[in-house]
Structure formats: structure tokens, C-alpha cells
Specification:
By secondary structure, the protein is an alpha+beta fold. The chain has two domains: 30 residues; 99 residues, Nuclear Transport Factor 2, Chain: A (Roll), CATH 3.10.450. The chain has five helices and four strands; from the N terminus they run H-H-H-H-H-E-E-E-E. It has a four-stranded antiparallel sheet with strand order 1-2-3-4, covered by helices on one side. A hairpin with a 6-residue loop joins strand 3 and strand 4. The termini are far apart.
């Protein structure tokens, strides 16, 4: 093996090892959000909308969010796919018996740099979506 290739491989291995060590160290001290538990019910909601499964949607959400996700699933399924791909919890807050959770899509697609806000009611183990708002719109 030539010396230049060997040096390049060694340098790449060192950079990779340093990056992996840094990633491990950052995750060691990261704190999970109390709102992360709402990511899975949100995924289920968006997947049901993509599948146009009104029966499943009726169990997990109120009429207005169901109407929005079904309409979006029919006319612009790419929006739901992009939201599913980029479901990052930004924050949330508890208001009485409801919890509002804010999600953001940072990574591209039609919902890049857009927000999705869902308000959940009921027990945290089985939350129901009461309200939805988003600034992510279908491409024109």
C-alpha cells in the first residue's frame, strides 16, 4: 500500500473514532424531553392518515384533526410522509388536563422548517388528539 493512501486511511480512522467518542459523550449527558412520549401517538395518527384509515383515526383523534389528516392524506400524502420522517419534539406544555406538543421538521422535504402542534387530552398512556395546527402546506 502506498504511503499517501495509508496516511489518508489512518487520518480517516482517527476522525471517525473522535466523532464516535464525541457522539457518545454528548448522548451520555443529554436529557430526554417529557414530551417524547407523544411522538409515537403522533406517528400513529400520521400513519393512519396516510393509510386513510378513518376507523383507527376516530379512536385516536377528534373530528377536526381527523378531517385534516384524511384530506391531506388524499390530496397531498407527501406532506404526511415528510412529517413522519422529521418528527422532532421541540417542546410542549401542560394546560389543565391537556398537553400541547410542538414538533418541527428540520431535515428537508415539504415540511422543512415548519411546525406541527398537537394538543392531547386524556391519560399519557393513551392520549387522544384534540386539536392540530401546522404551517406545513402542500407544494403548489
Amino acid at each position: 500500500m502506498k504511503r499517501g493512501v495509508r496516511n489518508t486511511l489512518a487520518g480517516s480512522a482517527i476522525v471517525l473514532a473522535a466523532g464516535a467518542a464525541g457522539w457518545w459523550f454528548l448522548n451520555l449527558y443529554s436529557v430526554s424531553s417529557p414530551y417524547d412520549r407523544y411522538r409515537e401517538p403522533t406517528r400513529e395518527f400520521l400513519q393512519a392518515g396516510l393509510a386513510l384509515d378513518s376507523v383507527r383515526l376516530a379512536r385516536i383523534a377528534a373530528a377536526e384533526p381527523v378531517q385534516w389528516v384524511l384530506e391531506t392524506g388524499r390530496r397531498h400524502p407527501i406532506v404526511l410522509r415528510d412529517l413522519l420522517r422529521d418528527l422532532d419534539v421541540v417542546g410542549g406544555r401542560h394546560i389543565g388536563d391537556a398537553t400541547s406538543v410542538l414538533f418541527a421538521g428540520w431535515h428537508g422535504g415539504t415540511c422543512r422548517n415548519h411546525l406541527l402542534s398537537l394538543t392531547f387530552e386524556g391519560r399519557p398512556e393513551a392520549p387522544r388528539i384534540r386539536d392540530l395546527s401546522t404551517d406545513c402546506q402542500a407544494p403548489r
